[in-house]
């Protein structure tokens, strides 16, 4: 299989279109390098060839975009429906070069182009046919067969993710298994199998597309996690940082896991692991989390057993790890005829196409360098009898032209022999010319054989092939003129030889430098990978340390919160008690002041009554004394009168004075009582306000 793959790669890189890419890249690099005589001669010699190639190369201008909005869009580009100048409908995949170059796996577009060209040349029905591939300064373009039936994801959405019947799911999964088997036979694993990459052609059969994530099974490079998370296998999730020296992190068994996920989704309407990408990844890496089968969906025991076998987290126990035959032999597929399913089975869904560019079954989605040498490809496979006759005629014309050129070369060689010593360049040129003649004959014979095989399919390509042949003829004429111009000068051959030798030396030097840089980069990559592993370990230790500190802080905070809660409850209880106590004290004071006011009022009333009594008694006494008091005449001297007790005063005046003093005392007591009453009222008002 490895030898066959190498043959395919060599065949692709030595094709005419790949060599044109190499020439363009060489010319670009020559114009950017430090100029010298040899480079200037090379640039001047190939400058008209370069511009002629650019004019005749396939470009985006050769296609008309039918639908402005793309029906598929990814991280590196988009897919649109286009029409060629011959009114053929194709799907064009446009990929941004800068994004592709910056990604880790730079070879993915070359792998995709190589696989599609191989399957197209071999007329493989399990993959979209490649019509052409080309590039410009910014983008890579793949012009391929248009799947008018959409994809399996769109079919699920149009059914509102209603589960398929077992017969329907069996048909699609069986064809998917055959497509994956064919890809593995070519030496590649897909790594991104999902319903969105399973196309449905106009007959209802599937084609496995989007081969940009494919990688060689026997690769020695670092393998990373690619694809879509719900369809990624557990070993791919655990592949980050794995060293290829210890063996590949995963193999083609990752595709059988994805096949199992697709079959599960067809039978249940959803993938077995759902949620965010992190949640899905944790479920995949946890060996205790197994695939669950919903009791709401009734499927056979054979289907459950097949799903359990395909979705085994241990890759060595997974069905298909020892080969696809153990999957084909499963009882679930006992009714499948694997050899004739493409031709004999009736698909569950056959799209109704109203026009060649009908996209009703598609989902709407809201460096100026040539680093991809060998990417350009044009499928020149037709079998029209008229074109075959034209090819034969053109072959004869080319043969005659070659013979005529040979004669001219012989004449020029003879002229050079007369003027200078014969050089080895002429003999090399003869050998090269013979080799080109043989290769041209073999190539034309292969073309004629392919023309006879695909007669009915490529009738519309007559005009395109004719234009291509005319362009090739013009190029050969141009090369002939250049050859004649080069041979007109005696020393041109020697200079050209010297230029070639210098360029070979420079190429060898560049190759050596590239190898040295490659080794240096590999060492840097290894050291970087080792550093990544160390950083991951440090990160793990830091996370554990921070987790422990976090748990300790959380426990301390919880204890502090509990203490604060207890203290708050205690203070609240204490405050409530104090509040009740203050309320009770205020009530008692209020009652005391109220009682004091009442006592003051009673005392004031009693004093008033006593005062009234005293006044009444005084009036009575005064009246009785006045009535019964005898008149005593005053005799004697003036000094005697002054020393007597009643001197200058009468008994009545003395009684009046005594009563007046008593009255003042009562009034003072009454005023004091009123002051106390006013003070008590103020205290009551203040307490009420408080």
UniProtKB/TrEMBL annotation:
SUPFAM superfamilies: Protein kinase-like (PK-like) (SSF56112)
Reactions accelerated catalytically: L-threonyl-[protein] + ATP = O-phospho-L-threonyl-[protein] + ADP + H(+); L-seryl-[protein] + ATP = O-phospho-L-seryl-[protein] + ADP + H(+)
EC number: 2.7.11.1
GO cellular component, one term: cytoskeleton
GO-annotated molecular function: ATP binding; protein serine/threonine kinase activity
Pfam families (alphabetical): Pkinase
Coiled coil: 663-690
Cross-referenced PROSITE patterns: AGC_KINASE_CTER, PROTEIN_KINASE_DOM, PROTEIN_KINASE_ST
Domain AGC-kinase C-terminal: 334-387
Chain positions covered by the region annotation Disordered: 604-647
GO annotation terms (biological process): actomyosin structure organization
Family in the record: Belongs to the protein kinase superfamily. STE Ser/Thr protein kinase family. COT1 subfamily.
Name under which the protein is recorded: non-specific serine/threonine protein kinase
């Amino acid at each position: 299989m490895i030898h066959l793959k190498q043959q395919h790669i060599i065949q692709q890189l030595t094709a005419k279109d790949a060599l044109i890419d190499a020439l363009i890249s060489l010319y670009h690099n020559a114009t950017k390098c430090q100029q010298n005589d040899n480079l200037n001669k090379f640039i001047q010699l190939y400058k008209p060839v370069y511009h002629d190639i650019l004019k005749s190369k396939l470009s985006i201008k050769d296609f008309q975009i039918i639908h402005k909005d793309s029906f598929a869009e990814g991280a590196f580009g988009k897919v649109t429906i286009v029409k060629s100048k011959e009114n053929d409908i194709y799907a064009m995949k446009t990929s941004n070069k800068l994004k592709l170059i910056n990604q880790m796996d730079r070879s993915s577009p070359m792998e995709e182009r190589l696989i599609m060209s191989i399957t197209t040349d071999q007329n493989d029905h399990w993959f979209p046919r490649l019509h052409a591939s080309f590039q410009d300064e910014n983008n890579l373009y793949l012009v391929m067969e248009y799947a008018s039936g959409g994809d399996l994801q769109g079919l699920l959405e149009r059914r509102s993710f209603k589960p398929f019947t077992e017969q329907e799911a069996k048909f699609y999964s069986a064809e998917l298994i055959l497509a994956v088997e064919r890809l593995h036979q070519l030496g590649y694993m897909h790594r991104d199998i999902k319903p969105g990459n399973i196309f449905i052609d106009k007959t209802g059969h599937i084609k496995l597309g989007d081969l940009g994530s494919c990688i060689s099974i026997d690769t020695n490079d670092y393998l990373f996690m690619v694809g879509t998370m719900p369809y990624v296998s557990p070993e791919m999730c655990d592949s980050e940082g794995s060293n290829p020296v210890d063996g590949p992190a995963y193999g083609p068994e990752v595709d059988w896991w994805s096949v199992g996920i697709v079959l599960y989704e067809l039978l249940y309407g959803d993938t077995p692991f759902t949620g965010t990408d992190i949640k899905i990844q944790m479920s995949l890496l946890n060996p205790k989390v197994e695939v669950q089968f919903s009791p709401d969906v009734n499927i056979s025991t054979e289907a459950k057993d097949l799903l359990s076998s395909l979705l085994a987290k241990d890759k060595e126990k997974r069905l298909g790890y020892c080969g696809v035959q153990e999957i084909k032999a499963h009882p679930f597929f006992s009714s499948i005829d694997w050899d004739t399913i493409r031709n004999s089975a009736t698909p569950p869904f056959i799209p109704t196409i109203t026009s060649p560019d009908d996209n009703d079954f598609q989902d709407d989605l809201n460096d100026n360098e040539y680093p991809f040498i060998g990417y350009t490809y044009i499928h020149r496979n037709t079998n029209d009898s008229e074109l075959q006759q034209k090819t034969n005629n053109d072959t004869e014309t080319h043969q005659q032209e070659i013979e005529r050129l040979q004669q001219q070369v012989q004449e020029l060689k003879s002229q050079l022999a007369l003027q200078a010593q014969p050089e080895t360049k002429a003999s090399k040129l003869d050998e090269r010319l013979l080799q080109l003649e043989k290769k041209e004959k073999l190539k034309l014979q292969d073309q004629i054989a392919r023309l006879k095989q695909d007669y009915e399919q490529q009738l519309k390509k007559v005009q395109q092939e004719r234009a291509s042949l005319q362009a090739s003829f013009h190029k050969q004429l141009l090369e002939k003129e250049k050859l004649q111009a080069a041979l007109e000068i005696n020393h041109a051959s020697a200079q050209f030889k010297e230029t070639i030798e210098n360029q070979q030396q420079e190429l060898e030097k560049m190759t050596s430098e590239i190898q040295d840089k490659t080794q240096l980069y590999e060492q840097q990559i290894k050291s970087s990978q080792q550093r990544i592993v160390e950083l991951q370990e440090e990160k793990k230790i830091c996370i554990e340390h921070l987790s422990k500190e976090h748990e300790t802080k959380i426990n301390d905070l919880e204890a502090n919160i509990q203490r604060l809660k207890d203290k708050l409850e205690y203070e609240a209880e204490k405050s409530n008690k104090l509040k009740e106590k203050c309320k009770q004290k205020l009530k008692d004071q209020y009652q005391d002041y109220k009682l004091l006011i009442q006592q003051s009022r009673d005392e004031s009333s009693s004093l008033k009554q006593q005062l009234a009594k005293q006044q009444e008694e005084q009036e009575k006494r005064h009246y009785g004394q006045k009535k019964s008091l005898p008149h005593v005449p005053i005799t004697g001297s003036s000094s005697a009168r002054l020393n007597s007790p009643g001197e200058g005063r009468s008994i009545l005046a003395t009684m009046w004075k005594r009563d007046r003093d008593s009255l003042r005392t009562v009034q003072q007591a009454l005023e004091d009582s009123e002051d106390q009453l006013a003070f008590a009222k103020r205290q009551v008002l203040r307490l009420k306000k408080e």
